[in-house]
Amino acid sequence: MVYSEKLLKKLLILHHLIQKNEWSLLELSWETGIPSDKLSKIIKEMSKNYLIKLENNKIIWSPADNPSTIRPWGWRLIHKVLVGSTQQVAKGYGPWSIVVAEYQLEGRGRYGRKWLSGLGGLWITASMSLSNEEAALLPIAVPVITLRSLETQFGINAKIKWPNDIIVDGRKVAGILIEAEAFPNRFITYVGIGVNVNNDISLEDATSVKNIVGSIVPRNKILATIIGWFSRIRKLVDDREELVKQYMNNLDTLNRRVIIETVQGTIEGVVVDVSEDGSIIVESKAKKISLDPSDVYKLRYID
Ligand code: BTN
Question: In the chain, how many domains are there?
Fold first, then answer.
């Protein structure tokens, strides 16, 4: 993989902006060693992916777009410019940490697929220490939380494609990766969420909040809402019926004819239900088959 010099310069600039939202052009030019004419050109380019502007020779990054400005109560927020994968970094911190990265070199999707993680997206992993009951509900809770945060903050009408892709008009706007380590009576869970917010999209079947809303948005609105819900995960479990109802009401996959690639082979059928642990029930050749998300490589609609 070849990374461009432009990208490195942007990462260097972000490294400074993370610590201080406002810089004079000259000061940042001295700090980074990038000549000020080049610097102003790069800042202009960065304003396509960040709420960054250059005004009266001042570079200003909106604090609402800089995750470092958030101080979530009861959490440790670790904001990094460049990582391999936030899933990996989160394992080095204790529970109730949230790792946010501006760029991932090794962003991971489900089944070890690559997750493209360009500048302007929201790439996070939250590590939480949860009871078995709470952890078991995550496959249902996390998509609902992600979908709700897009809806309440930007009025986006997203749907869930099973197991937990967040889609708008058939295109993926967010993906979720849940990993866990088991301990006696507890799980340390690593909930990875990737939201295409202001990043550029190169895939046909993906979209971004920027594309949907029509302008660049402050990422902290999404981040703060998601963290707020994670802090109240107990409440979601206590009201699990409501949670399951919300999941089902927003499930795009229900009653759809699908082809599913599983570990054992391909299944064609109609999705008739999803159980509380997140397994899908498919009716195929007059038989009902229950499939766990970890059994499924790929699910495709055929109607
Ligand atoms: C998927 O849809 O396959 C899941 C994608 C999950 C991507 C997020 S981005 C933050 C976290 N770090 C990763 O490497 N992956 C998850």
Answer: 3
Q: What is the pLDDT of residue 297?
A: 86
3-state secondary structure 125-164: EEEEEECHHHHHCHHHHHHHHHHHHHHHHHCCCCEEECCC
Q: Assign residue 144 the CATH number of its domain.
A: 3.30.930.10
**Do residues 79 and 193 both lie within one domain?**
yes
What CATH number is attached to the domain comprising 36?
1.10.10.10
Distance 281 CA to ligand 1 centre (A): 25
Is 99 a residue whose pLDDT tops 90?
yes
Predicted confidence (pLDDT) at residue 214 exceeds the cutoff of 90: yes
pLDDT for 186-209, tens place per residue?
999 999 999 999 999 999 999 999
Within a domain: 163: yes
Pocket of ligand 1 (CB under 6 A): 85-87, 104, 107-110, 113, 115, 117, 123-125, 165, 175-177, 192-194
**Helix (H, G, I), strand (E, B), or coil: what is residue 17?**
helix
**DSSP summary character for residue 275:** -
Q: Are residues 226 and 125 in the same domain?
A: yes
Give, for ligand 1, the residue of 91, 103, 113, 115 to mutate: max count of ligand atoms closer than 8 Å to Cβ: 115
- Structural domain of residue 191, as residue ranges? 71-249
- Residue 21 CA to ligand 1 center (angstroms) comes to 27
Q: Residue 63: what are its φ and ψ, rounded to 5°?
A: -60, -25
Work out which ligand 1 atom sits closest to the CA atom of 85. 14
